[in-house]
Every structure is written in C-alpha cells, then in structure tokens.
C-alpha cells in the first residue's frame, strides 16, 4: 500500500471514530437551556419513585402503575429497576438498567443504559429540598418525566414543573399522565 492510500485510510478511520464518539455522546446530552440540579444528593435520590407523567415512547407505551427504583449497584453505578403494568397484556413489565454520573455525584446529570453499551441522558433538572418530587429531562425534548415519592404530586409542584418544561420547549400537552388507580 502506498503512503497516500495509507494516510487516507488512517484519516477515514479517525473520522469514523470521531463520528461514532460524537453520536454516542449526543445520546447523553441535556436539552438546550436545561441545567442539572447542583448540588445533588445521590443518597437522598435513591429509593422508589412513582411516575406521575411522561412523554410517551415505545418502551413505556400502554403502561400504568410505573415506578423506578434506584439503588447502589457499585461504587460508581446505580441500579435502575423500572416496572409498570401493561393492562392490554395483563402483566407486569420490568427493565433493569444501570446509571452512571456524567459530571460526578454532586450533579444530577446521569447516563442510563438498559441495552449494553448504549446510554441515554437522564438529567434531574428540578427537585424539591426534601427529594419528594423531581423533574427529569432526557437527552432531547422527546423525553420528560415528572416523578414523586407517592403516586400523586401536589398541583403547585406540577404547575411549576410544567412551566419549567414548557419554557425549555417541551410540548407538555403531549404528556401521558400515569394511572396508579390499581395500587
């Protein structure tokens, strides 16, 4: 192989690697104008959260009674246990994943994976001082969750979080409000 061809092949491989790295890092992004909670208390965040509302997507479509339970998996990982009831199928669905901090445990910016090496952004962009209610942004405006330590959230907290999400560009009218009536 001549030097020009070798240089070209090396340059193409480098460009491909850079493109792949950029594509993967974009998956753990935070929506423009959103900021992760800082300081963030990982230990206070652990435990079970009820999904109050979400932007619907294929992995949660048709689910009710959705919860997410976070626990320590490793020194630098959090175990994520999501479950919800599919009324149509009459059975529970569960997904176990892992989360890692993007900027360190003092910032509510994580990346979550349920499928091998592929991560998505999980950004805690609002939380009350007692860690009872949280607003979570995904890596773009297609993913948003309102979470609570109980199946419901006070109207004033809900309104505050909806206003914050709307200001970032979320179409809050598209939110699916999670049914917890069978609990």
Automatic annotation (TrEMBL):
Lipocalin/cytosolic fatty-acid binding domain residues: 43-179
Signal listed as a keyword: yes
PROSITE patterns: LIPOCALIN (PS00213), PROKAR_LIPOPROTEIN (PS51257)
Keyword list, A-Z: Signal
Pfam families documented for this protein: Lipocalin_2
Keyword Signal: yes
Secretion signal span: 1-23
Similarity comment: family membership: Belongs to the calycin superfamily. Lipocalin family.
PANTHER family: APOLIPOPROTEIN D
Listed name of the protein: Apolipoprotein D and lipocalin family protein
